[in-house]
Amino acid sequence: MTLLRMLGDGVFDAFAMFWDTLWALFLGFALSGAIQAFVSRDRMQRMLGDHRPATLAKATFWGVVSSSCSYAASALAKTLFRRGADLTTSLVFMIASTNLVVELGLVLWLLLGWQFALAEFVGGAIMIAVLGLVGRRVFGPSLAREAMSRLRAGEGGDPNQHGHTHDHDHDHDHDGSVLDASADQPLRRRLRSRQGWSDAAGYLISDLTMIRKELVIGFLVAGLITVFVPPAVWQSLFLTGHGFWSSLENAVIGPFLAIISFVCSVGNVPLAATLWQGGASFGGVVAFVFGDLIALPLLAIYRSYFGMRVTVRILVVFWATMSLAGLAVEYLFRWVRIPQPQPLRAMVDHGPTWNYTTWLNLVALALFAVMYWLYRTRRDSGKYAKDPVCGMQVEVANAPARREHGGEMLYFCSDRCARHFDERNTTMTMQHDPDGSHRDPVCGMTVSPDTAAASVEHAGETYYFCSPGCRTAFELKPEAFLTAS
């Protein structure tokens, strides 16, 4: 088989997996968008001040209805902790908002089988129960105080101040929140309003925008791996034929692969399907799916939030609970005689066909067009803003980070995006030469504002170009050139 043919087969496998999950992706993100637009979170914030079982159950529920990608979930967990929520409870919320959500369960069902979708929720409950038992010992009061001190110092506040000192940590007397920005309207009226559904559409579009790279990378890498990586490679990674010890090794190695994969959220499900096809155990695949919360970029974020000591404990505790949950689910399902699903290959070999999936996809695409129209034509209420880095919709009143730039206030879904913006803005400031000329961000040519062939206003900054072609390239994807500069 030629290299070109293998590449083509890999891309086709990736598209087949995407096509089989298209309607589920839309349904999951649409439900998530509606929940984020209509469900209040302010009262949730006041209910998570300890780690009693009832509080952990509330954190789990609010995490499920606040589904988001791993990066946004980590930022929200940090915000909850900073505003008074218990550290263990905040971590439980983060687990629930990434691993116990509708879109993840639907994609698992379609790519791997209903058994894996069920394992997501059973294993997630086991993870939360274990974290609730060990969290009070591992993340005790002294460590929580250390994390809070690091967090406030990193945000520019006084580490010895126990009040809400940070400049964007606003409290509100009304019952508004990140999820329900319309506390002045009854929920029933908002459900019947176009503005409410326009806000839900805004969350849908921004969530898809935010994780589009993870989705593309996840499907594409999974498709290519099914073609290029022989089964012997997976067999060397995942032990077989040694009973319990094989299952234990698989459950331990699963999160490690998640750590080094750099793919989070729903994007790691296609990779999980590839591992299942390659011979990984049921528990090993489940542990891999849960492992998106300890991918290397997220560990770096935890370190910047809470410091190294807390991050190491998060890594150890999360890895252990993910492995334990995967192993427990595997043996629990064996005990109740739940059959294991068939490998992925039987599905992708046939590719997309004209069946019920096709009809569901067509309906999903039509509904997506309606939601996109609502998003594009909605009235700006001033309650939401778009993160200029990742594209996520952020509620202005409770944005995790904000910056003033060019006389305009910008809002971000997380400190990670705010730092990216700071780095980009610093780099672009250096693009201004002392004589007043500028550098074209696409080709790097020095241009004068008076003689530039084109210019564009972006995020409060004016950029000048040597030609209309460079301007067009910049307008298609400005973040690519700004990051690269």
UniProtKB/TrEMBL annotation:
Topology relative to the membrane: Multi-pass membrane protein
SUPFAM superfamilies: Ferritin-like
The keyword Transmembrane is annotated on this UniProt entry: yes
Keyword Lipid metabolism attached: no
InterPro entries referenced in this protein's UniProt entry, alphabetically: DUF318, Ferritin-like_SF, RNR-like, TRASH_dom, UPF0718_permease, YHS_dom
Primary localization class, coarse: membrane
Keywords: Cell membrane, Membrane, Transmembrane, Transmembrane helix
Region entry Disordered, spans: 153-175
SMART domains, sorted: TRASH
Transmembrane stretches, start-end: 20-39, 87-111, 118-139, 215-239, 282-302, 314-336, 356-375
Chain ranges of the TRASH domain: 387-425, 440-478
Protein's name in the database: Permease
